[in-house]
From TrEMBL, chain A:
InterPro entries: ExoRNase_PH_dom1, ExoRNase_PH_dom2, ExoRNase_PH_dom2_sf, Exosome_comp_Rrp42_subfam, PNPase/RNase_PH_dom_sf, Ribosomal_Su5_D2-typ_SF. GO terms for biological process: exonucleolytic trimming to generate mature 3'-end of 5.8S rRNA from tricistronic rRNA transcript (SSU-rRNA, 5.8S rRNA, LSU-rRNA); nuclear mRNA surveillance; nuclear polyadenylation-dependent rRNA catabolic process; rRNA catabolic process; TRAMP-dependent tRNA surveillance pathway; U1 snRNA 3'-end processing; U4 snRNA 3'-end processing; U5 snRNA 3'-end processing. GO terms for cellular component: cytoplasmic exosome (RNase complex); nuclear exosome (RNase complex); nucleolus. The keyword RNA-binding applies. It comes from Sphaeramia orbicularis. This is Exosome component 7. Keywords: Acetylation, Cytoplasm, Exosome, Nucleus, RNA-binding, rRNA processing. Residues 32-166, 196-261 form the Exoribonuclease phosphorolytic domain. The keyword Ion transport does not apply. Belongs to the RNase PH family. PANTHER family: EXOSOME COMPLEX COMPONENT RRP42 (PTHR11097:SF8), EXOSOME COMPLEX EXONUCLEASE RIBOSOMAL RNA PROCESSING PROTEIN (PTHR11097). It is found in: Cytoplasm; Nucleus, Nucleolus. Component of the RNA exosome core complex (Exo-9), composed of EXOSC1, EXOSC2, EXOSC3, EXOSC4, EXOSC5, EXOSC6, EXOSC7, EXOSC8 and EXOSC9; within the complex interacts with EXOSC2 and EXOSC4. The catalytically inactive RNA exosome core complex (Exo-9) associates with the catalytic subunit EXOSC10/RRP6. Exo-9 may associate with DIS3 to form the nucleolar exosome complex, or DIS3L to form the cytoplasmic exosome complex. Exo-9 is formed by a hexameric base ring consisting of the heterodimers EXOSC4-EXOSC9, EXOSC5-EXOSC8 and EXOSC6-EXOSC7, and a cap ring consisting of EXOSC1, EXOSC2 and EXOSC3. One of its GO terms (molecular function) is mRNA 3'-UTR AU-rich region binding.
UniProtKB/TrEMBL annotation, chain B:
Pfam families: S1_RRP4 (PF21266). It comes from Sphaeramia orbicularis (orbiculate cardinalfish). It comes from the Eukaryota. This is RRP4 S1 domain-containing protein. One of its GO terms (molecular function) is RNA binding. Residues 55-96 form the RRP4 S1 domain.
Amino acid sequence: MATVQVSEAEKVYILHGIRDDLRVDGRGCEDYRHMETETDVVSNTDGSAKVTLGHTAVLVGIKAEIRKPRPMLPDEGYLEFFVDCSANATPEFEGRGGEELGTELSNTLYKVFNNKHSVDLKSLCISAGEHCWVLYVDVLLLQCDGNLYDAISIAIKAALFNTKIPRVHISTDDEGGKEIELSDDPFDCMRLNVENVPCIVTLCKVGHRHVVDATLQEKACSVASLIISVTHKGTVTCLRKVGGGSLDPESIFEMTEAGKRVGKALHTPLMNLLKQEESLGKTRQKVGFLG
Amino acid sequence: ELLPGKNTLVWKFVSGLQRPGHGTYVDEEKVDKLICVRPLKPGKSHSRICTTETLEVETNSRLDSVLLLSSVNLPGGELKMSSPMREYLQEGDLISKDRLCFSDGALSRHTRSLKYGKSHFFSLCLSWVRGGKDTFHNLPCGHPSSLANNGFVWLYPTPGQQEKLGLYTSLDLSDREVISRLRNCLLALAAHKVLLMTPVFFTVKDILKPEVMEEIVMLTQQKLLEQEG
């Protein structure tokens, strides 16, 4: 992870600012930075989205493939995650430098998204025990400026919304074998229900308070942070603590409450935005991930 | 400003003389290769300590520069160091100094005083700061700031207050708001590649939005044009 150096005096300034609910860039403790979302940015994927949050930029592409379902869950499809930490983000990711962060991120994403409460995995099943759709979610970090989890989760939700899986028909031939036929019509496709897909809210404990969407400087002042995934109803689906410091139970409770509040407020504008973008159709001017 | 293909005055040295003055003449030449322009009079710049073992400092440039032990002024006018370096300077600490250039292109730095760096706020503004003799400015809104030649910016509370306040005491909310506003304005101007700055008043948070940023930049550019015309 990209690190910045902060001197003692700066730390004090940041700490006092958070205590007074006025952060260095003028935000309150529960404010996000400016966020931009665009879907359908990569043409050779089934669904893609790009999210920029401050200077953090994330690109997510989803590809669907037909595979055998997992033996334990024969009537469900599944998701696979891969996070690529590009050396474009920071020079530290060069070579194998980003591998550790990549695995950590993908493991957390797997826990948050790959369950039937978040994504309707049953709808990914084609024939129980034999064929199912597997969604390969590839995350590419283009720029790191703190708060990767939130940006990635929003990008994944947008990309899942954008995903179009072709419809398949199963026909039985004379010998009793099953044959899968893909629909010829490119517009005959299945959409995923993303209503219950959670968004991740990262709360950093700085001093006696906690902040949402911490910048790298604020991250350097925080001892520990809490990753909370929240659905549109405000249900917490996953909770994880990262960082070396400790958190007392009372502040964990406070942070969860704040996370719920912030996370719940995040979903409605996001869904409205995605639907609005969808309704523009082909007339929309695309910015793309280089723009 | 030097660009390839531009006609430049070049000192031609005659018979072993290494310095402009007697025995040299001025000639105009076209620059067709990469040259290094060494400033006659180096300006002041802020920087951040990287390592205390070798006293390397980050100066927002390609290479880190070295802080010579002989050029460090110890606090309280001490002449000899009585405790380890880390008690005086720590990794991440900020300092402000004059820049000296060695002949091989290495940068050496000279600490003026530790007082400058120990600031209340420091923000980074890349290459869009106009270099000048004076780094300390009083902005039109009456707030002081320090724009160093290497692009580091230091915004600090009004001078009267600064002396009253110790290093670790907190600021008024209004002062803090002004500093945040200025920071966002400066970053917005830097993002739109404008050299000068004139703060326009918006609510602090709004300046993070690109539309507002553009508006500020447009207004500033207009003001600049008016001033020139």
